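quick q for whoever's on today - can somebody do inverse folding on this one?? i tried earlier but teh output was garbage lol. tokens:
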């Protein structure tokens, strides 16, 4: 059986109904806030709201809580190198996604069992002055055994360039603001 994975993602750091509601239903939501501990109540509110609006919902860097709350999946950031992710008893459609910046991190994500790898930064951002660029992005994506999601610096001006990137989809933070 072929599973259809989401191919457009956005990151949120707080629950704002208007922001999530304004997104197309095919855009998956990743809750990522490393500044403070996740509030279980907030996560459940986001889950309920996403479900009622037919959006996939992922929690960043907390596989145990994501599985316990029966979310759609978990996002494993590039700095999480733990290989113990596979030890959890996960539901059949639970999706593990993760990010990488280079070939070494791609191999770690493959060992972690991720299904989609966010490869970044494709374009320059305010946080990353150095980007992969289309050519290096395509070379790395061809060395990967998983589907690749383009991340980093994607905006309305360079969105057309994604057509020549070897990417299954894309994700953005500022693109959806």
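ok took a stab at it. sequence:
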């Amino acid at each position: 059986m072929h599973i259809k994975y989401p191919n457009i993602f956005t990151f949120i750091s707080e629950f704002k109904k208007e922001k999530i509601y304004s997104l197309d239903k095919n855009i998956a939501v990743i809750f990522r806030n490393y500044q403070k501990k996740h509030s279980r109540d907030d996560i459940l509110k986001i889950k309920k709201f996403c479900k009622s609006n037919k959006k996939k919902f992922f929690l960043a860097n907390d596989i145990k809580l994501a599985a316990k709350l029966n979310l759609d999946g978990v996002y494993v950031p590039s700095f999480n190198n733990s290989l113990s992710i596979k030890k959890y008893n996960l539901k059949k459609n639970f999706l593990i996604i993760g990010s990488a910046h280079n070939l070494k991190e791609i191999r770690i994500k493959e060992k972690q069992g991720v299904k989609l790898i966010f490869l970044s930064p494709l374009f320059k951002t305010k946080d990353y002055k150095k980007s992969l660029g289309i050519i290096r992005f395509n070379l790395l994506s061809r060395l990967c055994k998983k589907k690749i999601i383009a991340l980093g610096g994607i905006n309305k001006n360079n969105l057309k360039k994604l057509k020549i990137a070897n990417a299954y989809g894309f994700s953005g933070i500022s693109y959806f603001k």
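fwiw The two ends are 36 Å apart (CA to CA). also The longest strand covers residues 95-100. so keep that in mind when u check it
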